[in-house]
Specification:
Number of strands: 6
Organism: Streptomyces bluensis
Strand content: 5-15%
InterPro entries: Cro/C1-type_HTH, DUF5753, Lambda_DNA-bd_dom_sf
Shape: elongated
Order of helices and strands: HHHHHHEHHEHHEEEEHH
Largest sheet: 6 strands, mixed
Helix content: 40-55%
Pfam families: DUF5753, HTH_31
Protein name: Helix-turn-helix domain-containing protein
Number of helices: 12
Strand order of the largest sheet: 3-2-1-4-5-6
Structural class: alpha/beta
Distance between the termini: 56 Å
C-alpha cells in the first residue's frame, strides 16, 4: 500500500529519521515506544513503505514534536488527507488526472514558495481559462470535451493557492517566447497578457521577463520548478516535466544547482517593474 507519491514518501521518511535522531532514539527504541517492529520504522524512513497519517502522529508524539505547522505538513505528506482527515480537492478528479499531475498538484498545494522558469507557455497558476483550454487541447491530443473541461477546471482550481492564507509565493521567470507565442488566437492571447499584468501587481507574485536580447543563458536547457517548504527546507524539490512524466530532483547538490541557475537567470531578466511594462507593451501591440 502506498499513501502518496514516492517523492513525498522519501521526503517524509528523511524528516522522520532526522526527528528521531534529534531526540537521541535508535530505530529499535522508536519502534518499541509505538509498539511496532523495528523493520516498520526502517521501511518508513527509507521511503520504501507508505505510512498512514495516524502512524505519523504516533511517531511525532514519540519524538515530542509540538510544532503545529511541521506536524501538519508531515501529515499531508503521509497521504491524500490534511491533518483533519479531509480529502484534498483534486481527489474528485482522480479519474482524469495522471498520477504525475496529482503528485505535482499535491506538492504545489503544500509548498510555501514556488520558483518557476517557463520557456514555452504561461505558468498554470497564471493562465486564463481560455488559454488553459488551448494549451491542454494541444498537449493532450484527441481529448474528449468532457475530460478537457475537467482538466481546465483543475488548472483554474490550482490557482487558489495564490489566494490562500498565507498564499503561495510565486516567483516566475518567463522567456519572451512565452509572451510572443500566440496560443488560442489573438483575442485569447490578449486577455492572457492582460491577466499577466494584473498578476504582476500582486504582492505574492514576482514576475520577470527574460527578453530575447538576453541571448544564450542556462534557461535554454528547458523549464523547471523549485518547490520550497517553510517548515522544513529538506523537503524542497525540483520538478522537471517531459512529454510522458515528471522527474523529481531531491539531492542537495541538485537543488543547489537549480537554485543557483534560477538566481543567475534573475540577473539576466528585466526587473519586475520593467517586465510589467514589457508585457503591457506586447499586449498593446508594441
Amino acid at each position: 500500500m502506498q499513501y502518496g507519491p514516492a517523492v513525498r514518501r522519501r521526503k517524509l521518511g528523511t524528516e522522520l529519521r532526522d526527528l528521531r535522531t534529534r531526540v537521541g532514539l535508535t530505530s529499535i527504541e522508536a519502534a518499541r515506544l509505538v509498539g511496532w517492529h523495528q523493520s516498520k520504522v526502517s521501511r518508513i524512513e527509507t521511503g520504501s513503505s507508505g505510512v498512514k497519517p495516524a502512524d505519523v502522529c504516533r511517531l511525532l508524539d514519540a519524538y515530542d514534536v509540538r510544532d503545529a505547522e511541521l506536524r501538519e505538513l508531515l501529515l499531508i505528506l503521509a497521504g491524500g488527507e490534511d491533518g483533519g482527515g479531509r480529502q484534498k480537492w483534486w481527489h474528485a478528479y482522480r479519474g482524469v488526472l495522471p498520477a504525475a499531475y496529482r503528485d505535482f498538484i499535491s506538492l504545489e498545494s503544500e509548498a510555501s514558495g514556488m520558483r518557476t522558469l517557463e520557456t514555452s507557455v504561461v505558468p498554470g497558476l497564471l493562465q486564463t481559462p481560455d488559454y488553459a483550454r488551448a494549451v491542454t487541447r494541444a498537449a493532450v491530443k484527441g481529448v474528449p470535451e468532457d475530460k478537457l473541461d475537467a482538466l481546465v477546471e483543475v488548472r483554474i482550481a490550482r490557482q487558489d493557492v495564490l489566494r490562500a492564507d498565507p498564499p503561495l509565493k510565486l516567483n516566475a521567470l518567463l522567456d519572451e517566447a512565452v509572451l510572443r507565442r500566440e496560443i488560442g488566437g489573438p483575442a485569447v492571447m490578449a486577455r492572457q497578457l492582460r491577466q499577466l499584468c494584473e498578476a504582476a501587481t500582486l504582492p505574492q507574485v514576482r514576475l520577470q521577463v527574460l527578453p530575447f536580447t538576453a541571448g544564450a543563458h542556462v534557461g535554454v536547457t528547458g523549464p523547471f520548478v523549485i518547490f520550497s517548504f517553510s517548515s522544513a527546507s529538506d523537503l524542497d524539490v525540483v520538478v522537471l516535466d517531459n512529454l510522458t512524466s515528471s522527474h523529481y530532483l531531491e539531492r542537495k547538490e541538485e537543488l543547489k544547482a537549480y537554485v543557483e541557475a534560477f538566481n543567475a537567470l534573475q540577473i539576466h531578466a528585466l526587473s519586475p517593474e520593467e517586465s510589467l511594462d514589457y508585457i503591457a507593451g506586447i499586449a498593446a501591440g508594441a
